Amino acid sequence: MRRWDQRSVLVVLVVTIALLAGACGTSPSRPNSADGLTSSSPSASPVAARPVELPRGGRTVFPRFRMVALYGAADGGGLGALGLGTPDQAARRLDQQADTYARPDRPVLPVMELIVTIADPSPGPDGCFAHATDIDDGWRYLRAARAHRQMLVLDVQPGRCDFLSQTRRWEPLLAQPDVGLALDAEWRMPAGAVPGQEIGTVSAAEINTVTSWLADLTRRRALPQKPVLLHQFTPDMITDRDALASPPELAVISHTDGFGSIPDKTTKYRALTNPRLHSGFKLFYTQDKPLMSPAQVLGLQPPPDFISYQ
């Protein structure tokens, strides 16, 4: 009789547990929202993704920020101040330089301007008289820039090849929200010309093919506005300048390049400033005699939006 009682109790317990499990709907095979499946509840709605911003906030470059850059290649400093030391060391020096331009009414956004396509005195395998650097260097500098809330700008010296073909190879980096572009017309060589032996030139039409492509890339990926520098230190370095396009996705900058005395540099800046574009100004640590102070640079008319140091 005692054995029967124990068996009866066991049966009752098993049946009770089964009934409770069915009532609670705890079957492990039932999908729920934690599985990443779409809920059928009419109250459920997708959460809108927050638009990506620039490293120090916002989605447009100007007039919120003044940009201050170090220029160079990842070559140990041979082509400019950016290449001295490690990328992180360069980022720290850049922060120090940029801080000299910070004003209460206009914060600075520091920029690493990295030469990624370098003009050469020999044709190379593709006949461009230029070579692309290792893209891994670009990623290294971008990581350092991000650690300091800075931007990266890729500088292209295309040699005898066109700017668009030499720029598109950098699309993986340019597709990032904190990477801009610089086109260096000094190194856009006509047929038969050799970089370093004469000054290059480019048409507004060729530049517009690049800015149109980059604006489309920026728009399709919903990226923040990108700075685009147009380096120039002679009037004919960029021809038909009035035809230069300025898509809203880009902040196109007429960047006055070249070293020299303060009177020479200020005269050149006045002559090359394009009222249709943002203004830029370049300084050389060792070749400018003397080096202009931040107060002198900001005293230029108009005060430059983009200031770089080589």
Report on this model:
The structure is a single chain. With 310 residues, the protein is an alpha/beta fold. It has a single domain (66-309), classed as TIM Barrel (Alpha-Beta Barrel). It has 8 helices and 11 strands. The protein has helices at 2-24, 87-99, 135-147, 163-168, 171-174, 204-220, 262-272, 294-298, and strands spanning 66-72, 108-119, 130-132, 151-156, 179-184, 202-203, 226-232, 238-239, 250-256, 278-283, 306-309. The strands form 2 sheets. Strands 1-2-4-5-7-9-10-11 form an 8-stranded parallel β-barrel, surrounded by 4 helices. A two-stranded parallel sheet has the order 6-8. Helix 2 (87-99) links the parallel strand 1 and strand 2. The radius of gyration is 29 Å and the shape is globular. Mean pLDDT is 88; it is low at 1-46.
Question: What are its keywords?
Answer:
two-stranded parallel ribbon; about 300 residues; 11 strands; disordered N terminus; TIM Barrel
